Amino acid sequence: MPPVAKFNEVTGTKPYLYYQTPGTAGLHYPMNSRLINWFKFSSPATFYPLAGRLVPIFAVLALALIGVGLYMSFFVAPTDYKQGEGYRIIFVHVPAAWMSMFIYLIMAFWAALGLVFNTRLSGMMTRALAPTGAIFAFLALWTGAFWGKPMWGTWWVWDARLTSELILLFLYLGYLALQGAIDDTRRADRAGALLVLVGVVNIPIIYYSVQWWNTLHQGATISMDNGSKMGVTMLWTMLIMALGFWAYTIAVALARVRSIILEREADTTWVSELAEVRL
Amino acid sequence: MSVAEFLDMGGYALYVWGSFGVSALLMILEPIMLRNHRRAVLQRIARIIRIKAGEKV
Amino acid sequence: MLEVAGLACIRGDRKLFSDLSFRLEAGELLHLHGHNGSGKTTLMRTVCGLMKESDGEIRWNGESIHRLGEDFTRDVVYIGHKNGIKDDLTGVENLRVCSALDGNPITERQAWDALERMGLMGHEDLPSRVLSQGQKRRVALARLLVNKSRLWVLDEPFTALDVAAVDFLQSIIRDHINSGGMVILTTHQEVRITREQVKELQLGWKEVGHV
Amino acid sequence: MFSAFRTLMGRDLLLAMRRRSDLFTTLFFFVIVVSLFPLGIGPEMNTLRLIAPGVFWVAALLASMLALERLFAVDYEDGALEQMLLAPQPLFVLVLAKVTAHWLVTGLPLVLMAPLLGLQYDLSSEALGVMVLSLLLGTPALSLIGAIGAALTLGLRGGGVLVSLLVLPLYIPVLIFGSGAVEATASGLGGQGHISMLGAILVLSLLLAPLAASAALRISVE
């Protein structure tokens, strides 16, 4: 531990203040700031092992749920009278679309928390969720296109929901680009949080305007789901797949937040004493 | 239902397996990239500690 | 009266200083020392409210500056490394806009007088981009003459100024201190003010064998 | 509060007057982009009349985004932005003043130029009227929403492209209702619904955008 050299410069009659080297325990540590500190600073340190225990649990849960979901979507769900086997794509398309929207809302929650309470952990959570959200948005578009081709003969259909999904992907890319462009982590977190909040306010407006735009130009002839009637088993399959995706998201996000914590707290004492770093 | 029939997916093989395949691919790729990133971060921290330890000793 | 308790600031992931406390009464000057990168500018910008401190409290007349908001910024004038004047505007226009934004608009006449006192005779109505760095600094500092804020936060005010301007600025600071104002400044030059009004604050890491 | 609004807006307009060339860059960009389409798509009047609303609005969108970067950047570099943050006025009033001045310099000329360009596309006078009205309501909303993007990406490398990536998704409702209004009028359906939606978006952005932009400025200046 480097010796604490307090640099105390007293000039002029008035006694003056001292300054001490960072990183060492404060000589007098007033009680209240210790509590505030616990919540603000060391929460990444206590969160890190907690996340470490949760990741495998959710990973296993995800595997199980998706396994059951896949089995049901191929063997349990009946063949659709009109669309044959092609409709099974909705068992991936719809959960992915749900998750892409859901993750953005969770990011907005963490963003609001981060801006209000100024905690560092929430900024990390928002940043950890973004890539997974972007992947699900892309998957929703990809599977939507693959479903559109056999049904309507074209890869891309300017359907209201698909267009909104595309715009959601742009919002994700905007967030990721902004995070990439800012070096200072504090500013990146807070700027990213503000962008997500502005985005969340705009999503209903965008969705409504795209809906209006879609009905205005083509009328409601082509729409995604009025094709196959929603049988009970299909609904269950979709729910299970969605839960599987949800567990997958938590596992991935927690794993990513752990490596973000490591990156940001690289030079702190608690990281250097970590087991994984030692070996 | 024979395997061939299953794979054919009633003629929609390309589309069904295209969607499921890419989804599976991405959802497997992401954890793998995460693990590599994590290992790289850990190695960097270990190196910092060794340098610091080296300097002090 | 300005009071800072347990202040800590982080720049990027580097902790600049922590547990910093000091008090500044009316009629006192706080002179910041410290090597480059020791957090002098960060401390000043945090005290003004430009930057958010990561820990600790800054109180102005007993009330946190974040709660005071505009009431606090009304009493503060901050002149940093950047002059804060527009190159396309003339000195007079710059001064009048700045003081109008500070809440006490001044007349054309007052602006001209202030610039003359700052030694910009004949340059008042030239666009600022033709002025030299020293003259631009004088235009920026001219705000101190027309400003009613009690707390002055000056970051390296003497840079790019010639000897005459430095003397003049020292005298303005002295008058401000004697009339009960407060000044926080950083400078590598010596501040010629009576001893008992000056407080020194040394920033920077003093570890064994550290320059 | 209002005097600070007037002072800052007056200062920005004075600055714009001093640098007259910047005044016209946005306008010229709009004119050129709109005139390019007939060259690209062909002089056939029917198609031109059909695509006119979309072309005008996309051009207006790009023009306003082009001018966004300079909104705060100049003040950020010469320190005037710090003084704005420290001024004893509510920041969103100052941001509103700056955005108004910015709109007067970059948005209004587009609105005034639109009828002239409309002749190139042989738009009916009624459609032209709605085009001007929709631009009049839409371009301020674009400047306001864009101000948030400009404030967020202050001082970043590659700021220009980044602003467009951040701001474009948020521009889409304005684009849809703007061009929709003109198209509805041209096809006889009547653009009232669109115009009212455009007005609603303008009011919403007038209320929320300055607040968000001020928060973004405080974050960026740190």
TrEMBL record, chain B:
Keywords: Cell inner membrane, Cell membrane, Cytochrome c-type biogenesis, Membrane, Transmembrane, Transmembrane helix, Transport. Signal peptide: none annotated. It is a single-pass membrane protein. One of its GO terms (biological process) is cytochrome complex assembly. One of its GO terms (cellular component) is plasma membrane. InterPro entries: Haem_export_protD_CcmD. The chain crosses the membrane at residues 12-29. The keyword Cell membrane applies. It comes from the Bacteria. Its main location: membrane. It is found in: Cell inner membrane. Belongs to the CcmD/CycX/HelD family. NCBIfam families: cytochro_ccmD (TIGR03141). Required for the export of heme to the periplasm for the biogenesis of c-type cytochromes. This is Heme exporter protein D.
Automatic annotation (TrEMBL), chain D:
Keywords: Cell inner membrane, Cell membrane, Cytochrome c-type biogenesis, Membrane, Transmembrane, Transmembrane helix, Transport. GO terms for biological process: cytochrome c biosynthetic process; cytochrome complex assembly. GO terms for cellular component: plasma membrane. The keyword Transport applies. It is a multi-pass membrane protein. The chain crosses the membrane at residues 21-41, 47-68, 91-116, 128-154, 161-182, 194-217. InterPro entries: Cyt_c_biogenesis_CcmB (IPR003544), Cyt_c_CcmB_bac (IPR026031). It is found in: Cell inner membrane. Pfam families: CcmB. One of its GO terms (molecular function) is heme transmembrane transporter activity. Required for the export of heme to the periplasm for the biogenesis of c-type cytochromes. Belongs to the CcmB/CycW/HelB family. This is Heme exporter protein B. It comes from Sedimenticola selenatireducens. The lineage of its organism: Bacteria, Pseudomonadati, Pseudomonadota, Gammaproteobacteria, Chromatiales. The gene is ccmB.
